[in-house]
Amino acid sequence: MEKHVQIFLNKISYFAITIATLNLIIIFIFQTPPETCINPKLNPNHKPHPKSSCDAAHRPLTTVEKKNGRLWSTNTWRKSVNSFSAIFHDLETLNHISNRSHALILSAGGGQAVMSLNEIGLREITGVELVDSPPLVSRADPHNLPFFDGVFDLGFTANLDQALFPSRYVRELERTVKNGGVIVVCVEECGNDGVIEVLKLFRRSIFSQARNVTLMRSKMTMIVTKRTE
Ligand SMILES: *[C@@H]1O[C@H](CO)[C@@H](O)[C@H](O)[C@H]1NC(C)=O
Ligand SMILES: *[C@@H]1O[C@H](CO)[C@@H](O)[C@H](O)[C@H]1NC(C)=O
C-alpha cells in the first residue's frame, strides 16, 4: 500500500473513533433520567403515572392476584377444592377437626386443600410445598419442617406417595402435630395390606379409620390416625 493512502486511512479511522467517543459523551450528558421504573414502551400493561416512584413490592403482588384470580375461577380448580371439602366436612362431622383447629397441609400444591379448609371456617391453616404459591402455600421442605413440636391439631397430606423419604415425612408430621391431634394421609387407592404398609410408617399415632375417597379425580384411600405419645 502506498504511504499517502495509508496515512489517509489512518486519519479516517481516528476521525471515526473521535466521532464515536463524542457521541457517547453527548448521549451520557444529555440522556434524561427515566421518569418511571419501567419504560412504558416496553410494557404495554404499564400504568403511565404511578403514584409512588418505584414501589417494587406492589407490582408483583398485583400480578400474583391477577394470576390467582384467573386460576381460582377455573372449573378444574373449583372441582379440586370441592373434592377436598367433601373429605374435610366428614372429618368435621367425626369431630376430628373444628373451626378452631390449627391445620398443616404438607405438599399442598397450589393450595386447593388450604382454600377448602378456609371455606369450612378454619382460620389457622399452614400450607407448605417445595415451591411456594402465595398467598395460600409457603415454601418448606416436608422432610425438614420449620415448625416447633406439637403446634398443629391437624396434619394432612394427599402426597405421601410422592415423598422422597416417606418415613421421614411421616416423622415430621408426627413431630409437628400435637398429642391428641389428627393426622390424615391420602394415598393411592389400596386394600388392607396397603393400609397396613402405610401405618408402619407411623410411630406415635394410632389407627382411627380408612376409607376410599376421590380427590382431584384420583381414587385414593384416606387413612386417619390419632396422634398419641
Ligand atoms: C365455629 O363453630 C362453632 C360451632 O359450630 C360456631 O358456633 C362458631 O360460630 C364458629 N366460629 C367461627 C369463627 O366460625
Ligand atoms: C378401596 O377400594 C379397593 C378397590 O375397590 C378395595 O380393594 C379396598 O378394600 C377399598 N378400601 C377401603 C378402605 O375401603
From TrEMBL:
State any GO BP term from the record. alkaloid metabolic process
GO MF, one annotated term: S-adenosylmethionine-dependent methyltransferase activity
| Spans traversing the lipid bilayer | 12-30
Domain Methyltransferase type: where? 108-185
UniProtKB keywords: Membrane, Transmembrane, Transmembrane helix
Protein's name in the database: Methyltransferase type 11 domain-containing protein
